[in-house]
């Protein structure tokens, strides 16, 4: 502030502390720091709330997908049983005995299971990131 006589003098409320910062400046810095901390806290809360909501949505979606998979599996099993029953009925209608038709249906089912087992076993080498583990941990060969 300027005095009426033209000399520059400090305002009485602008006391300077040992660091050379006025009391008003320190208060302003404190308020800005509190505002920044508040903004960061609000951002973290918003991120946490979003992550929580997305986790709940993911769990609900996963549960729905699991239920759909179980229902699909039951429908596939029922369809397979219908095909086997139709095959047995067709064999019996064409002169094959019940026992022979059922044994043939069982043998076909076992052959299909063995084929699927061997195919799945050939795919097992791709599970577990074996090549990646060898690259990351070369000493664990």
Polypeptide structure, described:
The structure is a single chain. This protein has 141 residues and is mainly alpha-helical. It is built from three helices and no strands. α1 runs antiparallel to α2. The longest helix is centred in the middle third of the chain and has 71 residues. The chain starts with 22 loop residues before the first helix and ends in a 5-residue tail after the last helix. The mean pLDDT is 84.
Could you give a quick summary of the protein structure above?
The chain is built from three helices and no strands.
Distance between the termini: 79 Å
* Structural class designation: mainly alpha
Please describe the biggest sheet, giving its number of strands, its sense, and whether it closes into a barrel: none
Provide a count of the helices: 3
* Percent range of helical residues: over 70%
The chain-level mean pLDDT equals 84
- Overall 3D geometry? elongated
Q: What's the oligomerization state? A: single chain
Low-confidence stretches: none
Q: Could you tell me the number of beta strands?
A: 0
The Cα radius of gyration reads 39 Å
Q: What is the chain-wise order of helices and strands? A: HHH
